[in-house]
Task: inverse folding
């Protein structure tokens, strides 16, 4: 479950009578919302609805991790429950018919627990400039690989559709990719992967940061680039559909930016492989654009595109459903 800030993951455990493989067979549960900033003390009960199941890489065996969203006792989604609204969009017949696929590139930074400074960096100082660290190897270039590999294996074990990992441009920063996943499952899988990452960093005594610009100055920020395609885009003639979808996204640029993560203005400066936050532009193979279309997609005349605007701390339920709504349901 997600706490009151929208980024603080919370969890609790319970014993079941036997193995369960379907969320609908799990009991609802509750927690004290006054302790998570989600309910007043005099009416503190928040109800958990089980929504998705993953194998538990920590306890293993028949144990499971369960993604839950949160409701009032009357059955209304609480304000921080972004999954509920996303599920409505993804169950719309026009969206279901298009089978939206997502691939999310989650960047994050590993920090020393005591000083909240990136691992591998001199305390109070800076490493050499960016260049050798991206996809780098070696003790002076790659910091925290044991954590990253443990996370990769744990996600594979859990059944998360994790498709890869790599070291990022800023030292101490890494990325994992989830997808292609269909509809609401992209949000479920990314949140489960974030939870597993935070549990593994807890064991390692390291802090994971999803801040979009953890270190000011000439250092890359952290994003959650979201790759997207629909059935029409993947079929012949899809490139024209892609161009129309990008045009719609451009018309709603401000609305999307406002929902794409906190502190994104510190990251989207027009430097460090981003477009300025107030500018919407797209291009083929252009990593300085808001939307990037791959060379393969241009050549094949069909495929997918990448929305480079979401920040690393975005809510995947919000971003994925908003992209679907704007491109498939909104009539300008």
Result:
């Amino acid at each position: 479950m997600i706490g009151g800030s929208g980024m603080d993951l919370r969890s609790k455990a319970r014993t079941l009578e036997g193995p369960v493989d379907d969320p609908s067979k799990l009991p609802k549960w509750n927690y004290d919302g006054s302790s998570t900033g989600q309910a007043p003390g005099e009416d503190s009960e928040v109800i958990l609805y089980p929504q998705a199941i993953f194998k538990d890489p920590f306890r293993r065996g028949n144990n499971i991790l369960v993604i839950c969203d949160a409701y009032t006792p009357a059955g209304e989604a609480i304000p921080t429950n972004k999954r509920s609204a996303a599920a409505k969009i993804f169950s719309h017949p026009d969206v279901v018919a298009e089978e939206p696929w997502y691939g999310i590139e989650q960047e994050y930074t590993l920090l020393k627990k005591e000083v909240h400074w990136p691992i591998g960096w001199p305390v109070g100082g800076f490493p050499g400039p960016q260049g050798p660290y991206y996809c780098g190897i070696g003790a002076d270039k790659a910091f925290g690989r044991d954590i990253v590999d443990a996370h990769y294996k744990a996600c594979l074990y859990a059944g998360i559709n994790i498709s890869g990992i790599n070291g990022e441009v800023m030292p101490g920063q890494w990325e994992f990719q989830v997808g292609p996943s269909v509809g609401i499952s992209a949000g479920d899988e990314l949140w489960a992967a974030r939870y597993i990452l935070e549990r593994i960093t807890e064991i390692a005594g390291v802090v994971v940061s999803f801040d979009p610009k953890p270190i000011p100055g000439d250092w890359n920020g952290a994003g959650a680039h979201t790759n997207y395609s629909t059935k029409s885009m993947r079929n012949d003639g899809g490139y024209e559909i892609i161009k129309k979808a990008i045009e719609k996204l451009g018309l709603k640029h401000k609305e999307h930016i406002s929902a794409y993560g906190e502190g994104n203005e510190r990251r989207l400066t027009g430097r460090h492989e981003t477009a300025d936050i107030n500018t919407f532009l797209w291009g083929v193979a252009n990593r300085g654009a808001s939307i990037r279309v791959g060379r393969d997609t241009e050549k094949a005349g069909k495929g997918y595109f990448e929305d480079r605007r979401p920040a690393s701390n975005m809510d995947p339920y919000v971003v994925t459903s908003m992209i679907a709504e704007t491109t498939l349901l909104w009539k300008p």
Q: What stands out?
A: The two ends are 35 Å apart (CA to CA). DSSP finds nine helices and eleven strands in the chain. The mean pLDDT is 93.
